[in-house]
Amino acid sequence: MTYLGPASLRSRFKKAPRPDWKVADSYLKWLRGRPCYLDGRGGCGFGDPPRRSPIEAAHVDCAGGKGMSTRVADSHAIPLCQRHHDEQHGKIGAFKSRGGWATFQIKYGFNAVEVADAYWKSWPGRVAWERD
């Protein structure tokens, strides 16, 4: 049996690049410049403890098109402050043991797929990005 050192193992199991339909870095940058979607809908802001970044792009996994060990397309993301993003993932608050979009949407009374679609359609660079 031939020994495969760490370098050859890394090259053998290197992750494939993400498909183009998932990459929209300029969209995510634009999205992070928006206020938290839940600002005014259940508390938001910078709060305590301070966060590394005020707004994060939260990918809506229940929108579909997600494969095993991959995330959903970037066009299915909404801006959330770090506190709400952590809450959605079940890291803090009442959702600590459950997490997930289903319970998060019920708590705040919105449809994340529809909201993500509205943000995608309002992005100024969408038409040019979809054309390329």
Secondary structure elements and their pairing?
Elements (H helix, E strand, L loop, with lengths): L5 H7 L12 H8 L22 E5 L17 E5 H7 L12 H8 L3 H11 L3 H6 L1
Antiparallel strand pairs: 1-2
Question: Can you walk through the features of this model?
Answer:
The chain has 132 residues and is mainly α. It has one domain. Helices cover 36% and strands 8% of the residues. It has 6 helices and 2 strands; from the N terminus they run ααββαααα. The chain has a two-stranded antiparallel ribbon. The chain starts with 5 loop residues before the first helix and ends with a helix.
Essential attributes:
132 residues, mainly alpha, two-stranded antiparallel sheet, 6 helices, globular
Whole-number count of domains = 1
What kind of sheet is the major sheet? 2 strands, antiparallel
Mean pLDDT across the residues is: 75
- The N- and C-terminal alpha carbons lie at a distance of 48 Å
Helix and strand sequence = HHEEHHHH
Low-confidence stretches: 16-22
Shape: globular
Supply the number of helical segments: 6
Share of helix among residues?
25-40%
CA radius of gyration is: 18 Å
- Which percent band covers the strand fraction? 5-15%
Number of strands: 2
In what order do the strands lie side by side in the largest sheet? Answer: 1-2
Estimated structural class: mainly alpha
